[in-house]
TrEMBL record:
Recorded superkingdom: Bacteria
CDD domains: LuxR_C_like
Annotated keywords: ATP-binding, Nucleotide-binding
Protein's recorded name: AAA family ATPase
Annotated InterPro entries: AAA_16, P-loop_NTPase, Sig_transdc_resp-reg_C-effctor, TPR-like_helical_dom_sf, Tscrpt_reg_LuxR_C, WH-like_DNA-bd_sf
Domain called HTH luxR-type: residue spans: 870-935
PROSITE patterns, alphabetized: HTH_LUXR_1 (PS00622), HTH_LUXR_2 (PS50043)
Keyword Amino-acid biosynthesis (UniProt): no
Entry keyword annotation includes ATP-binding: yes
Length: 937
């Protein structure tokens, strides 16, 4: 009989079958779960977290949900965490992926990164930075789940490894429009005060997309109904069970089964569960004990070998165990305990010597199995085999690296380091020396986000060129620039000629780039380039080329910068992160020099690489996505820009998400979309730390306020943004011009000079207080806009200045050309040149209509009406719009209008936008004035 067929034969022989769970007492919770599932079916992903004590009915509820999902056409993937001393990285994900079928299996096979998680999965073939591999894995999971409707269940998250917890957070935040329902279950009684899942749950429960359920014990009435549904008939027995079970369905079922079999009902759940196991024959008890040592699940072949029984005796023992409901067949190759509590009490009932011997036997059997290093380490430690534990821990760390689980890799390596001094001949067993292993552990810690731990480990090691180069690299990320420079200098001084020196020089150049020692960077980068080419260090060569290109762009030598970046991005360096950095930098330089078509081509290349390698959500994968949005936006491809923006989460919870969300505001503010208010409300908490988020978010919030007739709020946003930014940041120019627009609307010309001076600083002063050449086309255009806005603030038409702005933006920035023509038309009218004004106005109107730029369109309609360029008849408002307009005229905000009319705030925003468009005005104040003037109230 084959290994895979035995469990099925036993299953048929004992008549074991699954039965549909009864949802007595859980209808409310089930309705909430199905609501998440139904919402996912419409294209709005949702997450549900189901907590409760052991045996309270979590799995029963999820089983019902899975049946409902399958009936609705969802693919159902269920994975379970395991209680191992060192949890296997991504165990529940790998467990879930094994059941992928059909279209989902094809999508899985198309993603080799995910295939590595499966039994027999291919090795990546080369060592790679585990943090980068984790980004690839997360991106691949997200792409995999987007192929069709999926219910993904991760059970027993209280036992999850850190990488699984990180994946849970990532998916909970990133799943937006996919037809995916993600469900996680956990035991509340296992979450002690410092349990790592507590922080994750607290973070996730704040997200609107997350539904949190806590299953309470059943009351007496519900418990009685539940027992009756299970077949209970004896009122006396049922009453005793209800008294004893304390609302726990699993405990109740075990008590009822014990009573039905004529057994007494022992005190405590552990005694109850063991009472059933004690009825087994001696061989069956030995097999059950072995299964408990193996964990929640046990492989058929491995369990038989550990038991020492022949085929026939083992098969008889398994029939006995399965018939009593202690183990159940699991998949096609093994068994699982009916409940985790049962595995725990059986394991704890073993004598210490029994446990040690069994762990040692499992370790011996697993030695020949590929990919079992983490389990081996667990069994070796439990079996007190320290040399075996050290060797297995190092191998488990290597495998975790390859799987993209840096936290687990660090854990395994750190445990091996802890065993090092207790094991003779440790270096031979580990296959690596102590310093190299500690450096590897530090790298894994950094990749898992713990730079401080990595730095601490490296500083305890004997200094060397390699150690100092890595130390410098991690210190850059903690913004300890001086420490980074010192470590990089030490690395350069100690490094021999070759790849190590090349990387040390490249890192040194990076660390000096933003300091006042800016003039030293080029010589360092050139030396790094020469050393890299001589030693074949392709990654260091690419990094040096990027740095040299950045210096050339800073000096306004754009042709040289493009030449260097074309070389840097032509071929793979062997390091995906550096390759994406090269493509992003190349596309950015092309964009900033006004070459939009070239920039689009390069960005698309980079995005293809990010998608194919699963790095859409890596640092440079993200940068390429928002750069692509900006290229669409500037080129006037707003439908495409809005499509990209819609994929940027509104409900943000981390700085990277907030950064992407800020860029989405470009097109959404310019189109006057209702989502702007919601997006801004989620971004506000991030307007304290990240300068880029502050610049984008505050600047676009200011423009939004101006379009809605609130220049005071706009000026407040602009001031706050400028105060947070470095004076030489190019984004200061745009934000200063927005502040000048607000000052004009407020009639406060006396403050305009200060903002114009602020706008001029970045044109001359670069990083590290170094003087530089002129800005790129867009920067120069915004500076021209600031100069023209300054004239407007002082009441001067300044036709020549506004013509200059139009010409400056005409490198391809469709929207800003139209906005500038609006102001140019106003200036021409002020000077009495109606014919020229009409020409500019018509061009602006045409552009605004083609873009769908409703706020600008409304402003142009108002200008046309004042200038008598158009004699359009009054627009008829709907009855609801008249109601909204009346409340707008009273000065009520959208929230209060919604409360008065019993409609959603977003709906009010849509009505207000429609009213502004129909009346041809750009602000609520103007709408109220027109309504009074024309008798619309």
């Amino acid at each position: 009989m084959s290994i895979t067929s035995v469990p099925r034969a036993i299953l048929a022989d004992v008549g074991w079958q699954s039965t549909r769970s009864v949802l007595i007492g859980r209808s409310v919770e089930f309705d909430r779960l199905t609501a998440v599932l139904d919402t996912a079916a419409t294209g709005q992903a949702g997450v549900a977290l189901v907590g409760g004590d052991a045996g309270i009915g979590k799995t029963r509820l999820i089983t019902e949900l899975a049946e409902r999902a399958e009936a609705a056409g969802f693919a159902v993937l269920v994975g379970q965490c395991a209680e191992l001393g060192d949890a296997l990285p991504y165990l529940p994900l790998a467990d879930a992926l094994r059941s992928a079928r059909g279209e989902l299996r094809a999508a899985l096979d198309a993603r080799p990164v995910l295939g590595r998680l499966l039994p027999g999965g291919t090795d990546p073939g080369r060592e790679s930075t585990s943090g980068l591999t984790q980004q690839q894995l997360f991106g691949s999971v997200l792409g995999f789940l987007s192929t069709q409707p999926v219910l993904l269940v991760l059970e027993d998250l209280h036992w999850a490894d850190q990488s699984t917890r990180d994946l849970l957070v990532f998916l909970s935040r990133m799943l937006q429009t996919e037809r995916v329902c993600l469900v996680g279950t956990y035991r509340t009684d296992d979450l002690h005060r410092r349990h790592p899942l507590r922080r994750v749950l607290a973070e996730l429960k704040r997200l609107p997309s997350v539904t949190s359920l806590e299953l309470a014990p059943l009351d007496r009435h519900e418990m009685t109904d539940y027992l009756a549904a299970l077949g209970g008939t004896d009122a006396g027995v049922m009453r005793k069970v209800v008294d004893r079970a304390e609302g726990n369905p699993f405990y109740a079922q075990e008590l009822l089964d014990a009573a039905s079999e004529g057994s007494s009902m022992p005190d405590g759940l552990a005694g109850l569960l063991l009472s059933r196991a004690e009825l087994l024959s001696d061989p069956a008890q030995r097999v059950l004990g072995g299964a408990a040592v193996a964990g929640r699940r046990a492989d058929h072949d491995l369990l038989q070998q550990a038991s020492g029984l022949d085929d026939l005796a083992f098969e008889e023992s398994m029939r006995e165990i399965v018939s009593r409901g202690l183990l159940r067949p699991d998949g096609e190759y093994g068994y699982a305990f009916r409940h985790a509590l049962l595995q725990e009490v059986v394991y704890n009932d073993l004598l210490p010597g029994e446990r040690t011997r069994m762990h040692a036997e499992f370790a011996r059997l697993l030695t020949a199995r590929e990919g079992a290093a983490a389990e081996l380490a667990h069994h070796y430690l439990a079996g007190h085999d320290l040399p075996g534990a050290l060797a297995a821990s190092v191998e488990a760390g290597r495998r975790a690296e390859r799987l993209g689980a840096p936290a687990e890799a660090h854990h395994h390596f750190d445990r091996a380091l802890g065993l090092w001094d207790r094991v003779p001949d440790a270096e031979r067993l580990a296959g690596i020396d102590h310093v190299a292993l500690a450096a590897r552990s530090a790298a894994a810690a950094a990749d898992s986000g713990d730079n401080h731990r990595a730095i601490s480990q490296l500083r305890r090691l004997p200094p060397s060129a390699e150690i100092n180069e890595r130390l410098s690299y991690y210190l850059i990320d903690t913004e300890d620039v001086e420490g980074s420079i010192a470590a990089a200098y030490a690395a350069v001084e100690a490094a021999p000629e070759g790849p190590v020196l090349a990387r040390a020089l490249a890192t040194y150049a990076r660390s000096l780039y933003w300091t006042e020692r800016h003039d030293e960077v080029e010589a360092l980068a050139r030396r790094a380039l020469e050393t890299a080419r001589a030693s074949g260090a392709a990654d260091a060569e690419t990094s040096a080329l990027i740095t040299l290109a950045a210096l050339a762009a800073l000096a306004d030598d754009i042709p040289r910068a493009k030449e260097l970046l074309a070389c840097a991005s032509a071929e793979s360096s062997g390091n995906l992160a550096i390759d994406l950095r090269a493509m992003f930098t190349y596309a950015r330089v092309q964009y900033e020099s006004g070459d939009l078509a070239e920039a689009a081509t390069t960005a698309d290349r980079g995005l293809r690489l990010a998608r194919e390698s699963g790095l859409n959500w890596s640092t440079y994968g993200t940068d390429l996505r928002f750069l692509r949005l900006l290229i669409h936006y500037v080129a006037g491809e707003w439908d495409l820009a809005e499509k990209v923006a819609s994929g940027f989460a509104v409900r943000v919870g981390t700085p990277p998400e907030a950064l992407l969300s800020s860029f989405a505001l470009f097109v959404e503010v310019a189109r006057g979309l209702p989502v702007v208010e919601d997006r801004l409300s989620w971004l506000r908490p991030f307007w304290t730390d990240d300068i880029t988020i502050i610049a984008m978010g505050r600047g676009l919030a200011a423009e939004h306020a101006l379009w809605h007739g609130d220049p005071e709020a706009a000026l407040e946003h602009a001031r706050a943004g400028l105060d947070a930014m470095l004076p030489n940041d190019p984004a200061v120019i745009r934000l200063s011009s927005t502040a000048l627009w607000a000052l004009t609307d407020l009639g406060r010309a006396e403050e305009a000079d200060a903002f114009l001076e602020r706008a001029r600083v970045p044109a001359a002063v670069g990083p590290g207080s170094v003087r530089r050449g002129p800005l790129g086309p867009e920067g120069l255009a915004w500076l021209a806009r600031a100069e023209a806005e300054w004239h407007r603030a002082h009441g001067r038409p300044a036709v020549a200045a506004w013509r200059g702005v139009v010409e400056a933006f005409d490198f391809g920035f469709v929207y800003e050309v139209a906005r500038s023509r609006w102001r140019l038309a106003e200036a021409l009218l002020a000077e009495g040149d109606r014919a020229a004004a009409l020409k500019e106005w018509k061009l602006a109107v045409e552009a605004a209509e083609s873009l769908g730029a409703r706020p600008l369109g409304a402003a142009l309609v108002e200008l046309g009406r004042r200038a008598r360029f158009t004699s359009a008849p009054p627009t008829v408002l709907t009855s609801r719009e008249q109601e909204v307009l009346a409340l707008v005229a009273e000065g009520l905000p959208n929230r209060e209008i919604g409360e008065r009319l019993f409609i959603a705030q977003k709906t009010v925003s849509v009505h207000v936008s429609n009213i502004l468009g129909k009346l041809g005005v750009s602000s609520r104040t103007q709408a109220a004035a027109v309504a009074h003037r024309d008798g619309l109230l």
